[in-house]
Design a protein that fits this description.
Blueprint (H helix, E strand, L loop, with lengths): L7 H12 L7 H8 L3 H17 L4 E4 L3 E4 L3 H13 L8 H14 L6 H8 L3 H16 L4 E5 L3 E5 L2 H15 L2 H8 L12 H13 L2 H18 L1 E3 L1 H19 L8 H8 L2 H17 L5 H12 L3 E3 L9 H21 L7 H19 L9 H7 L1 H10 L1 H7 L5 H21 L3 E6 L4 H14 L3 E7 L6 H6 L4 E4 L9 E3 L6 H50 L2 E6 L4 H11 L4 H16 L3 E3 L4 E8 L6 E15 L2 E14 L4 H16 L1 H9 L2 H27 L5
């Protein structure tokens, strides 16, 4: 049995010490981890030492180095067991008190007396007054007013939209996505007895906001929608949507309604996400016996629009106008980052695709003024500070598009994409040639070389050389970047000296040397990047030109096509554009599957877009079908008419650059009246001529981007 009772903070300090394996930790680092001052930690140390001594444990203290438990593995296990049994007297941090106060105020419909908080939190009125000042600052972010009335109590004022906004932020402030996923997956365990009443109480309040039974039903309904619409939400968006809906259902049940501006709602109603949201709302309404208003559906739509919603089947064949512009935006940002880093990142299709996908949702969030949470921001800024700064400088095109500054949370997400691309670039291209110079003989040299290559994947030990006979000219001829020596060298060549055993500080020294060398070489390599990039761009231009030729030569126009309905039209399209039964069956299946996700119809012009990707299609295929009679689709209160179809088919495995060209045609249906007219009425040769002009304009615009990137000019 342990002797002396610990406070919760003293217990936290000891627990932290048990987690650090044979490495000292400073008081300052402990303070940072526990979010308190160093002085607070120092005040606790006398009591902690007494407790450890009383229980036969030794604490090692080294001035200027730090604290460390001097215990064996068996003793550490015994110590942890003791801590688990330890009954603590809780000391609440200011943050804990403030979150508890906020949760109480958000859930209460009546004013709360000051005495309630002072007695429950064991805090003086002065302390609580300071806490309330901080609470007001937190609430200010959501335009919620904190009202303090002597004799009456404390309460808050704001709109339902602002209350929900604050509740969602409170949930995310107090629980990370991993904890929320555990709750959603029904893995919530009861709090340990060592947890404080306040922690359990705050957590219980939050769990009231996201009731587990409600969550279970919502998850089933979202899974149902995903299967029906063949969609997939990213994990973070999945968690966010469940939290949003659980909170909305709870508030609706309590009679709290949300309203949306009519114009904003009308703008949302034309989005495909609104249709999905409406279906989801109808399921929720039936399951929970609540009336879900258009305003609520609007907010669900905003959530989906700001989420990473993606097709689960073969990705949509064509890139919409938005996505085409997004790719160009992503390319501009990547060009900027390439110039900043001196590394050609444009060759990474993964970076281009990932950044394009990210920018789509990012722009939606920025335009709709949605709050962007990034729990990794501090870690990104700390571990990838250079990449973060590169990202910050590179996103000027995005700032111009949204007419404003990009919040750091969003820059952090963009930095993750660049960090991954740069790491991949280094692994694939940036290898440093190293020579090992050792005074202790060939055996020691080999051992050191082996250790270095094991620790640094970007180092190749090119040779082991004699310290006495170092030839700098020979090193340059061999392309050696760095000499690593076990003694200090007086030579005019990049070199560092390390311990033959390669200690931790030596590894840091090598990393710094490589970074410095990389910076020195940046300007020289920039020219190499441009030359290499030019060759890659020539290859890309070749892909564009071959694809354009393919699309023009294989174009088909069919007139007076007889089709009774959309399914019949799809059957005809599959028939006209395939040469075998196997091809026909696959294309028909893919076109019908794509149509289930929603029709793409230009109502003003009666043109329908039919598109898919098929394993049975070998080349890009473009065609136009003109119907003999109109097809009328019933759309609730109005009818939609189709008399023309633009058909776009492509292989499943196809270069994204080839798909961009198909996108030029699909996006021209939206922004080019001449193209629409020629599709509707033009002869075969007219359509060919118009397609050629559209594709040529895009082709030349890409050449211009490549020339700008490499800073070449045409004379």
């Amino acid at each position: 049995m342990s002797k002396n009772t610990l406070t919760s903070r003293e217990k936290e300090i000891i627990e932290l010490l048990t987690l650090i394996d044979n490495m000292p930790i400073t008081v300052n680092d402990i303070a940072k981890k526990l979010k308190v001052s160093s002085r607070t930690i120092l005040r606790q140390m006398s009591k902690i030492e007494s407790w450890l001594v009383a229980n036969n444990f030794k604490l090692s203290k080294k001035p200027g180095v730090g604290l460390m438990l001097d215990v064996s593995i068996e003793e550490k296990v015994r110590l942890r067991n003791l801590l688990d049994k330890e009954m603590v007297s809780k000391e609440y941090s200011p943050e804990e008190r403030q979150y508890f106060i906020i949760s109480e105020l958000l859930l209460s419909k009546e004013p709360i007396k000051l005495y309630y908080f002072t007695s429950l939190l064991k805090a003086a009125e002065g302390t609580l007054s300071s806490d309330l000042d901080k609470v007001q600052k937190w609430l200010d972010k959501f335009n919620i007013k904190l009202v303090r009335k002597p004799g009456l109590g404390i309460y808050i004022e704001g709109s339902e939209e602002e209350y929900r906004h604050a509740m969602i932020h409170l949930i995310y402030d107090c629980m990370d996505e991993g904890q929320l996923l555990n709750i959603i997956k029904d893995n919530v365990r009861e709090g340990r007895q060592t947890q404080s009443t306040i922690e359990i109480s705050t957590r219980n309040h939050l769990l009231k906001l996201i009731d587990k039974e409600t969550i279970r039903t919502i998850e089933e309904l979202i899974n149902k929608i995903e299967k029906e619409k063949n969609l997939k939400l990213a994990d973070s968006a999945y968690v966010g949507l469940i939290v949003h809906l659980a909170l909305a259902i709870q508030r609706i049940k309590n009679g709290e309604r949300i309203h949306m501006d009519k114009k904003a709602l009308d703008d949302l109603k034309i989005l495909p996400e609104y249709k999905i949201s409406s279906v989801l709302a109808s399921y929720l309404s039936k399951s929970f016996d609540v009336d879900i208003s258009d305003g609520e559906i609007g907010y669900i739509t905003m959530h989906l629009k700001g989420a990473k919603l993606r097709l689960n089947s073969e990705d949509s064949l064509y890139i919409t106008l938005d996505n085409l512009e997004l790719r160009e935006l992503a390319q501009k940002i990547i060009i900027n980052a390439s110039k900043e880093t001196g590394k050609n990142l444009l060759n990474s299709d993964k970076l281009l695709n990932d950044l394009t996908n990210h920018l789509g949702t990012a722009i939606n969030r920025l335009n709709m003024k949605l709050n962007i949470r990034n729990p990794l921001l501090d870690k990104i800024k700390e571990d990838y500070s250079e990449v973060f700064n590169v990202s910050k400088k590179s996103i000027k095109p995005l700032e111009e598009l949204v007419h404003g500054k990009i919040p750091e949370s969003e820059i952090g997400y963009i930095a993750i994409h660049f960090a991954a691309a740069l790491e991949n670039y280094r692994n694939n291209t940036e290898k440093y040639k190293v020579a090992i110079a050792c005074a202790s003989g060939i055996g020691t040299s080999r051992l050191l070389a082996s250790k270095i290559e094991k620790e640094f994947s970007n180092i190749e030990v090119e040779s082991i050389i004699s310290i006495i006979h170092i030839n700098e000219e020979e090193l340059r001829e061999k392309g050696i970047d760095l000499v690593i020596s076990t003694v200090s060298l007086n030579i005019e060549f990049n070199n560092i000296y390390v311990n033959p055993l390669l200690l931790e500080e030596d590894k840091i020294k090598i990393e710094e040397a490589l970074k410095n060398f990389s910076r020195k070489m940046s300007d020289e390599r920039h020219k190499e990047v441009n030359d290499q990039s030019f060759i890659e761009n020539v290859k890309t231009i070749k892909v564009y030109s071959e694809s354009i030729e393919e699309m023009i030569e294989r174009f088909i126009l069919k007139e007076n096509v007889v089709a009774e309905n959309i399914d019949n039209l799809i059957e005809k399209a599959a028939l006209f554009f395939t040469d075998s039964q196997r091809q026909y069956d696959d294309v028909l299946e893919k076109l019908l599957k794509r149509e289930e996700l929603g029709s793409t119809i230009l109502s003003d012009y009666n043109i329908m877009l039919l598109h898919c990707r098929s394993d049975e299609i070998a080349k890009l295929q473009v065609g136009v079908l003109r119907l003999k009679n109109d097809i009328v689709l019933k759309r609730g209160t109005y009818d939609e008419v189709v008399n023309t179809a633009l058909v776009l088919l492509a292989p499943v495995h196809v270069d994204s650059k080839r798909l961009e060209l198909m996108s030029v045609l699909s996006s021209s249906l939206i922004n080019d009246d001449n193209f629409i007219n020629v599709i509707k009425q033009g002869a075969h040769s007219d359509i060919i001529n118009k397609m050629s002009k559209l594709l040529a304009n895009y082709y030349y615009s890409k050449i211009k981007i490549f020339l700008d990137e490499n800073q070449y000019t045409i004379t």
